Structure formats: structure tokens, C-alpha cells
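Reopening this one. Same input as before:
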Amino acid sequence: MDEGDYKKLIEATLFMSQNALSASEISNIIGLASIGKVEELLKALAKEYNERDTALEVMEIGGKYMLTLKEPYASKVSSLASGPEISKGALRILAYISKNNGALQSELVKIFGETVYAYVKELVSKEFIEARRSGRSKKLYTTMKFKEYFALPA
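Same output, byte for byte:
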């Protein structure tokens, strides 16, 4: 296989993946042992997309790569995307946690009431937040999946 074929395989991999992938993961998928070469091809592919002036871009988020839509195109067609549905209450909790760079679950209960427990369970199960013990409560943090899903910088 030549470089062009590997670049097309990387493009296909990014297109098909629902999650951002590291160069190492892409390397395993396409069968190219050199992670450095995969990173080089990813950068070349990203440059090609920018030069072509398309609605698509290769984005790097926290050392992982994904093929995504540029703004304003993403917001215009986002209703077509399928993904995990998040209840409005859970979305409010998620916004609070994100805005405050984490929050104690006990603090959220004081602010939003007892329904927080169900929303936290929903958000943990959908992997948008993680919960770590902090004394008698839990400290809640957003995850990389949250950043990827909402296309936020890592």
C-alpha cells in the first residue's frame, strides 16, 4: 500500500468511527505499524480538507482525531444527527458541572433537588460525566466523551 491508500483508509476510519481515535488506535485499525507515520498522514489529511474548503474537517481533540463538520454547517444540520438523547434536567446538570469544572453531587442536590440523583445516573451511564468519591459525597466531572459530543476543545 502506498501513502495515498493509507490516507484513504484513515479517512474511511474517521468517517465510520463515532468516537475520536488516537493515532495508535488508527494505526491498529489500518495496519500501519508506524504511529509517527499515521500522525503525519493525519496532519496531511487535515491540511487537504482545509485547502479544499469543505464543510468537513479533521479535528484533533486531546490527542485523538475525528472527522467532523465545521461551523456553521454543524449547527444547521445537527437535528439530523443521531446520538444519545439527554433529558432537559440532565442537560441542566451537565451544563452546571461543565461551567464549574466539576461539582459535588451534594451541592447539586441543594441547588436542583432530589431529582439530581436520577440525572447523575443517566449522565454516568451515557459516559458524559464521571463520579469520584469525595468524602461523603461524589465529585462529578465531565468526560472526554462530553467534549467530543459537544465538539469542545479538550
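So the earlier flakiness isn't reproducible anymore. For the record, Residues 35-52 form the longest helix (18 residues).
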